[in-house]
């Protein structure tokens, strides 16, 4: 009765036989055979196959929606029993980068592990914008704006930006009266060469030029202190250097206030208990 249902739901969630096979650690032919046998038992076609994609039939949509409800109720029952009888256990894979991840998120996760010692954590400090679903990560910490509609984003912390330069650079640099003047300056690029500012009563992007790029904010700080150009970094990273007089904050009146670090996770029906607990723990810590 239950044979093939988990495979059918995996195909629905992953969007292809090959991705479902990878997620379930089985062969693609096994997935295809199980779907075919399920359709034969039900006497209806659930998936329309083409050479490039698969699509649910109307019957497939209705069947998948009902199965998801049953699956969620089963998971809730298991989680409730687990919460009563056991502590959460198993691996959680997290990706993120930068000082915020290392100095603020990682210590919070360490406290979570003290509370739930049977959970194992793998943190990948990778500035690359990895595909959580393809690469098998449970959570990500990201800075900026969410692009992927398959993901859920929850704000951990608002992070205002600062435009920075060293006194040495400013002594010989061209005038800087508005962000538009940045086009005539040397800039140090961390994430993007399009910097956002409040201009003309709206948020606009200014494209900047650079001979120095790095996805590590400390490398940007060192280059900025050395007088190589102007940096645009989060305030919590740069404020100490401004307070020490090593860097100067520029054009604060033009800074936007909508930058944040986000907790990101895949949009799917079933999230393991250990992952859900970590999500809520981090949200509570940063609230």
UniProtKB/TrEMBL annotation:
- Every copy of the HTH lysR-type domain together lies at 1-57
Q: Which InterPro entries match?
A: LysR-type_TF_proteobact-type, LysR_HTH_N, LysR_subst-bd, WH-like_DNA-bd_sf, WH_DNA-bd_sf
Q: Which UniProt keywords apply?
A: DNA-binding, Transcription, Transcription regulation
The Gene Ontology biological process terms listed for this entry are:
DNA-templated transcription
Q: Name one GO molecular function term.
A: sequence-specific DNA binding
| Pfam families xref list | HTH_1 (PF00126), LysR_substrate (PF03466)
Which SUPFAM superfamilies does the record cross-reference, listed alphabetically?
Periplasmic binding protein-like II, Winged helix' DNA-binding domain
- Respond yes or no to whether keyword Lyase is given for this record: no
Give the family, as the similarity comment puts it: Belongs to the LysR transcriptional regulatory family.
In Swiss-Prot or TrEMBL terms, this protein is called Transcriptional regulator
